[in-house]
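Narrative of activities, Objective 1.

The group set out to show that a structural description can be obtained from nothing but a protein's sequence at a throughput compatible with the screening campaign. Below is one input-output pair from the validation batch, recorded exactly as produced.
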Amino acid sequence: MAAKNKYEVASLGPNLILVAGSFAMNAGSNPDAASRAGRGFSVVWTAAGRLTVTLGSGSSPLGLFPTTDRYFQLVSASALVELAAGDTGVDLYPQLRNVNLTNGTFEIALKTAAVDTNPPAAAAGRRIHFMLLLSNTSAVPTRG
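Output recorded for this entry:
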């Protein structure tokens, strides 16, 4: 179970955690940490068109809490690319890949025509957004 202060999310099921964030694009480099919006994650550029997001906020004082947040189930996830006003003709879409709840990581792969593609350089309005709905319980969910 993730060791964080949490606020309730209205839902039809118990123990759901919403993790959402965004960050500025930065071509083939790590996104600027100051550009992150949201809490509880870090992000690094790992390869052409690939960014790895780690859930967690870094180590706590005296190492009392884990540096990554671990959840039991991924209920739903999405990602989208926000482009600047002048970015006409840019064909770039995100895919969520390699979700690893044990390590608290997942990849956002940016694609153009099924090819991993680095995002454009940082500019106002160019952001990558994501949202995860996670379960903080190992109980089997009720379907339907």
